[in-house]
Input
Amino acid sequence: MIRCSLDTNIVSDLVRNPQGQAAEQVRSVGEAQVCASIIVAAELRNAAAKRGSPRLARQLEAVLDVIEVPPLGPPADTAYGEIRTRLEETGRPIGGNDLLIASQAVVLGYTIVTDDETEFARIEGLRYETWLRRLCQIATRTATISIAQLSAQCVAPFAPAVLGSPL
Output
């Protein structure tokens, strides 16, 4: 089974919603199959420090205590250089932190789990999944989205909980 590397928005959801959809997915795949990059941990610790909330900091540490946080090291630096060069050559660079997270996942053979695949989708050979869906974000992505497209993209997985019956 391929391990999953949780992106910042997924770990944030675990902190805010310990019984939510991301937590359910972690239970489904097993805690031993998930990790979070040291970059993700750093981003979240920065956010908690900015908020100045001891409660939030405790909740974050409780989550990070049970999720492996592998160190960032070689050959992720080589992958970073190669991936960044390809993205810049195509005129489609991504943010530095996402690039570090992706580089680590590529060299470790992990799947990135995110709720914002727009940047990760640009990286050839990177596996990624989405565990959360923001219905209004998807619905407003384009004014011409059809009900069938909306259903296929996001409503169907939530149909029992949101609508009471499948579409």
The first strand starts at residue 4 and ends at 6. The chain has a mean pLDDT of 82.
